[in-house]
Prior knowledge:
By secondary structure, this protein is mainly β.
Amino acid sequence: QVQLMEAGGGLVQAGGSLRLSCSASRNIFTFDSMSWFRQPPGKERESVAQITNSNRPKYADAVKGRFVISRNNTANTVYLQMNNLSPEDTAVYYCNVDGKTLYGGDFWGKGTLVNVSS
């Protein structure tokens, strides 16, 4: 099993920045990839960013140029730096790991709320 703990959410004004972190209970090299998803109020969960073990990032079009995903292998942590936030970024942000190879499935954190005021 894999436990994930997100942190860093909160209330921020439009144009501001936040950094989310996701700490894993396992060595993150054992995962195929790590991702951030978000679920805005009343909407479906959507992918935000992904980073592979080869450190290749991918971003949703809505966040390209504003968000940066990174990883600290020593700390078993993945980060999401969010800049120039807008009210449309308001959502619960979830950490996800693809652990299919070694753990047989995906794992999710409990989420952290990001609330961007206009």
